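ugh finaly. both done.
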Amino acid sequence: MKPWRKALVNSNVTLEQAIEVLDKAALRVALVIDSSDKLLGTLTDGDVRRALLKHMPLETPVSQVMNTQPKTAEQSWTESRTLSVMEQYELLQLPLVDEDRRVVGLANLHDILNKNRHDNPVFLMAGGFGTRLRPLTNNCPKPMLKVGDKPILEQILLNFVEAGFHRFYISTHYMPEVIRDYFGDGEKWGITIQYVHEEEPLGTGGALGLLPHDEIDQPLFMMNGDLLTSLNLHSLLEFHETHNGVATMCVREYEHQVPYGVITSEGTQIRSMVEKPVHRFFVNAGIYLLDPLLVKSVGPDTRIDMPTLLEQQIDGGKAVNMFPIHEYWLDIGRMDDFHKAQSEVKSLLND
């Protein structure tokens, strides 16, 4: 039996019976349900004490004592959104219900707060034109194209939210109103979202200069808004914090096979022959963790690409580390990538 099921009581029980359930379940709340598990109300220690102060007998039906309008969270909500409601109403528990208001779980504030929650800012780059995906992007920014039942940008955001991140910045340029109207201030996900807008394209690193630099007080995640990945964000953060660099770039291994036999020679003599050799390289995966001082070094209206920015740091003697990604990763830049994402997103989300 799942622990929260021990807190369920039928609406026809007495106050005394409900108190027994409240004590035995040790969850600080009893969930009052009907015969089909629909939530009718909740009973807390405070409700019991108020009833006793009114000298209500223990034989009183629990329906006369319970809170008949308890706050609830929907089963589909992210953990961050659930936590936001609990903090807003100062709740220690919050019943989880499905679309028919049947009880499917119980959120516990202590359990949620004990999970990883990170204050690192997250910067999502969503200003590209997506010209290689036309005509799909004629009336829709590329990050807002749906993969499965959600826009690419929402899939990215949810990956961060589920990992415990709640401070987001989004950079826009092409059709910014579509992105702003959809995501708003982030309340839907229990997070905060601020926007910066590039009047003219500033390159892949220039938008860093538009951020409110006084708010960037921890390493900042920066990610292109057209990537689909199951990257372990906790591992990336731990790697960055233990390797003392000004930046960490995520990389992917890329294989290239020469379709011919390759010859090495000395003068006119052949020294070796290798048939269709495979060469392996690390390539930029479009995901970074950046030290606050590096972020703040990019001034407003600076046009610069990320490789150039990082090369400047390397030339200045600063350490720029790389973090190899072995997890799923797909850059949705071309039409065949987009179709591939549609066929692979379900298995990615089920991992």
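ok and the 2nd:
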Amino acid sequence: MTALFALATSLMWGLADFGGGLLTRRIPALTVVVVSQCIAVVVLGAVVLATGAWGEWGPRLWFAVGAGLVGPVAMLAFYKALALGPMGVVSPLGSLGVAVPVGVGLFLGERPGFAQFAGIAVAVAGIVLAGGPELRGAPVRRQAVLLTLLAAFGFGAVMALIAEASSTVTGLFLALFVQRVTNVLAGGAALYVSVRRGAVALPEDTGMRALRSALPALAFVGLADVAANGTYAMAARSGPVTVAAVLASLYPVVTALAARGVLKERLRGVQAAGAGLALIGTVLLATG
């Protein structure tokens, strides 16, 4: 079940990233993050009420609060790094956040077998290559590298924290709700500060009309991200974190394939090679 839940996580994260990427072409990125998470809060709040998950309050929810605080910081650092570019270097480096939950698993005593170690190495290489790294002629500013590494650490920390935020299914609903409320508060504060400094929260030409027309897509992005966090927590609880984290981090492959299928973007040779390596790593991890 670990492999199944983790692969479902990578599918939903990949599609959420693809949808979010499309939306940020029309709407400021921070607005996309805040609005999509607001929708997720409403849906999760209804789920928590319906399942009686309020009774699961406990100290473990501090992990969810931590994940909710770290997530927006990581996302903002990643967007800033992408703006500094080049994207072909920044995007693959952001995938290295998988090292955090893998390191946590090893620290807690997990010892994958030889086939799984090989699968981790092959899959991580595939994840990085699937982002289409620019291997030549790509000057990189030090600030972009530092911001990307900060974002990668943040993404990995969110995976590690959310895996510890609950011990039951209903508790997981409550943990995800707390995480998203924290996301909205932190992201909303950042959006407020950004607007006060002169940035725009909505497209200047279409304004609220653009936001209303994008609500279904925003809902998909927010709910897919929530579902991915949930399935990752299930994967980490049902099997080795080292395996769950790597399989869940295959989402750049999904994003690249979605761009190929929907936008007809051609995969570069290095991306195709990365997708192939990721597939081989997946097989080794699932059967090791």
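summary for the 2nd one i guess: The longest helix spans residues 169-196.
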